[in-house]
Amino acid sequence: MSVVFIGDEISTKQNGDQLANFYHCKACNELLAVGCNINGQFRGAINSNLLQDVNQLGNPIKIQPRLLSAEEKLERWSNLWGALTGL
Ligand SMILES: [Zn+2]
Predict the structure, then answer these.
(1) What residues pair up with 44 in beta bridges, in sequence order?
(2) How far is the CA of 26 from the centre of ligand 1 (A)?
(3) Rounded to whole angstroms, how far apart are CA atoms 59 and 47?
(4) Nearest CA to 31 among 6, 50, 3?
(5) pLDDT digits 0-9 by tens, 24-36
(6) What is d(CA 63, CA 41) in angstroms, rounded to the nearest whole number?
(7) pLDDT tens per residue, range 39-69
(8) Contacts of 25 (CB under 8 A, 6+ apart)
(9) Cβ neighbour number for residue 43 with a 10 Å cutoff
(10) Cβ atoms of residues 4 and 46 within 8 Å
(11) Do 13 and 4 form a contact (C-beta atoms < 8 A)?
């Protein structure tokens, strides 16, 4: 899947353990995507609530990221997240 972010009014915030960046629309503060550098590649996930055809995606996976260590998070993200460009 490829997603193009239109416009350049995006703010970047980091999560509690400074691992990932959260990208928000500056106009409405909607979360657009989350991403971080994993083994030299910029990887991430987009906010599926913003997609028109969200029903074409698989079922959501429930997670409790607070229970994961930083290493476990990176391991998990490297398995789930795709390449992220345009941010
Ligand atoms: Zn917006």
Answers:
(1) 35, 82
(2) 6
(3) 14
(4) 50
(5) 999 899 999 999 9
(6) 23
(7) 999 999 989 888 888 888 888 878 777 788 8
(8) 9, 10, 11, 32
(9) 19
(10) no
(11) no
Conformational region of residue 40, where left means phi above 0, alpha means psi within -120 to 50, and beta covers everything else: left
Provide the terminal-to-terminal Cα distance of the chain, rounded to the nearest Å: 16
Measured CA to CA, the distance from residue 40 to residue 42 in angstroms comes to: 7
Distance from residue 68's CA to the centre of ligand 1 (Å): 30
- What are the residues whose beta carbon lies below 5 Å from ligand 1 (ion)? 25, 27-28, 30
Q: Which residue blocks in the chain are alpha helix, DSSP H?
A: 70-80
| Centre of ligand 1 from the C-alpha of residue 63, in Å | 26
CA distance 77 to 60: 15
Report residue 60 as tokens: 């959501």
Residues, the chain: 87
